[in-house]
């Protein structure tokens, strides 16, 4: 049940980000989750709801973008869906020198928040893109 | 007033950073960490007892840290080798994390330690996700566990830098199919070495120690396919999950795999987000 540790890490990452002061309430967090990340989505959802309690993320929804595992064989150029359990030997040349193209992601890629009343609207560092909606 | 923030951060980046820092600091003082992962009851402690005794007999300065949910039984067993041993009780937590390991080392680990063996919590799921700052990750499976173990626990076996089969002395009695096991290991981790051991007979014990010492001596450990993710974390083992950035506080727009921004933002009100797929 390491999903709880991961959920706590997610909440920490959001609340400790430089822009967090201007978040007010966070209503949704979007996560990219790879097929080979070793994390169970439903378990993570449950843990996330608990980890958010009492923080600016209280009640926030977790939106998960599932990323299928894909590998590429350097020597022969073949690319394939790894599946689960993953096939990481090249199905074309049987070589063992592939690289993962994708599938190990465990990344917060976006969040939706309601600006806090105290924020002046310009409190975000330039590196954080803010869109009005 | 709703806003959307693009926040490219790997969730485990903090653990990965701490692990990387610990690995660097330990390397500077000549200590290499070996992380042992397996199911409960697969024979980690018995093999580790044999490794510690062999290292001690050869004059190699080693130490061991063993993690369990409860009891100090393993530390008591390992202490017999006469090397520094420490028990960590995780109080129910199913895995070790890098900062937990670091907290244990301060004031305990002798400066001259060449190899620090970390016996992780018996669990093939959770510990696989956490880099502890090791330079060699060893995943063990006993002959009694079934040849398909590597396929059932692909993250653990897929990230192994050395696979060790334990209890080989009873392989015949339980009908262990070595070829099938090796084929399954190869599927999830092509190129990783598989070593057969028997702590009871002492076979293979020297080879595992030899591999650990080779890595401590600067030899590059096996880099699993699953770890070759183009991670920007800079960690030598590549256990970290995909990172867009090497620093936790570095919020930017470097996207993976050519996805445009439009894929990474919540454009629609949350209420209007299409039904999510479930795993």
UniProtKB/TrEMBL annotation, chain A:
GO terms for biological process: protein maturation. GO terms for molecular function: nickel cation binding; zinc ion binding. InterPro entries: Hydgase_Ni_incorp_HypA/HybF_CS (IPR020538), HypA/HybF (IPR000688). Ni(2+) binds at residue 2. Zn(2+) binds at residues 73, 76, 90, 93. Keywords: Metal-binding, Nickel, Zinc. It comes from the Bacteria. PANTHER family: HYDROGENASE MATURATION FACTOR HYPA. Belongs to the HypA/HybF family. Involved in the maturation of [NiFe] hydrogenases. Required for nickel insertion into the metal center of the hydrogenase. This is Hydrogenase maturation factor HypA. The lineage of its organism: Bacteria, Bacillati, Actinomycetota, Actinomycetes, Kitasatosporales. The gene is hypA.
UniProtKB/TrEMBL annotation, chain B:
The keyword Nucleotide-binding applies. Keywords: GTP-binding, Hydrolase, Metal-binding, Nickel, Nucleotide-binding, Zinc. Pfam families: cobW. Residues 243-279 are annotated as: Disordered. GO terms for biological process: protein maturation. One of its GO terms (molecular function) is GTP binding. Gene3D superfamilies: P-loop containing nucleotide triphosphate hydrolases. Residues 33-195 form the CobW/HypB/UreG nucleotide-binding domain. Residues 247-266 have a biased composition (Basic and acidic residues). Belongs to the SIMIBI class G3E GTPase family. HypB/HupM subfamily. This is Hydrogenase nickel incorporation protein HypB. It comes from Streptomyces bathyalis. The gene is hypB.
């Amino acid at each position: 049940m390491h999903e709880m540790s991961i959920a706590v890490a997610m909440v920490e990452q959001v609340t400790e980000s430089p822009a967090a002061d201007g978040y007010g309430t966070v209503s949704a967090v979007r996560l990219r989750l790879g097929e080979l990340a070793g994390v169970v989505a439903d378990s993570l959802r449950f843990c996330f709801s608990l980890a958010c309690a009492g923080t600016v993320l209280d009640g926030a929804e977790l939106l998960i973008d599932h990323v299928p595992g894909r590998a590429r064989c350097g020597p022969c150029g073949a690319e394939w869906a790894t599946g689960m359990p993953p096939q990481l030997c090249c199905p074309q040349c049987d070589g063992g020198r592939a690289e993962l193209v994708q599938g190990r992601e465990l990344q917060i890629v976006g969040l939706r928040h309601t600006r806090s009343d105290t924020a002046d609207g310009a409190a975000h560092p330039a590196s954080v893109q803010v869109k009005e909606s | 007033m709703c806003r959307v923030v693009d926040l490219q951060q790997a969730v485990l980046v903090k653990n990965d950073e701490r692990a990387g820092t610990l690995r660097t600091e330990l390397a500077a003082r000549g200590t290499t960490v070996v992380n042992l992962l397996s199911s409960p009851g697969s024979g980690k402690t018995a093999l580790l007892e044999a490794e510690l005794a062999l290292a001690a007999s050869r004059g190699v300065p080693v130490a061991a840290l063993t993690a369990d949910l409860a009891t100090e039984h393993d530390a008591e067993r390992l202490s017999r080798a006469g090397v520094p041993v420490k028990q960590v009780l995780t109080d129910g937590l199913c895995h070790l994390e890098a900062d937990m390991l670091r907290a244990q080392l301060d004031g305990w680990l002798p400066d001259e330690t060449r190899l620090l063996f970390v016996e992780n919590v018996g669990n093939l799921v959770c510990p696989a996700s956490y880099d502890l700052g090791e330079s060699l990750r060893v995943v063990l499976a006993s002959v009694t566990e079934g040849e398909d173990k590597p396929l059932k626990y692909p993250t653990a076996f897929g990230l192994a830098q050395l696979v060790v089969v334990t209890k080989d002395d009873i392989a015949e009695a339980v009908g262990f199919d070595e070829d099938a096991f090796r084929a399954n290991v190869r599927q999830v981790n092509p190129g990783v070495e598989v070593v057969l051991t028997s702590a009871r007979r002492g076979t293979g014990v020297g080879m595992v120690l030899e591999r650990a010492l080779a890595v401590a001596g600067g030899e590059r450990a096996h880099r699993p396919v699953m770890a070759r993710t183009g991670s920007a974390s800079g960690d030598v083992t590549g256990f970290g999950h995909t990172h867009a950035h090497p620093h936790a506080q570095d919020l930017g727009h470097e996207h993976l795999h050519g996805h445009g921004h439009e894929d990474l933002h919540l454009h629609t009100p949350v209420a209007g987000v299409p039904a999510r797929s479930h795993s």
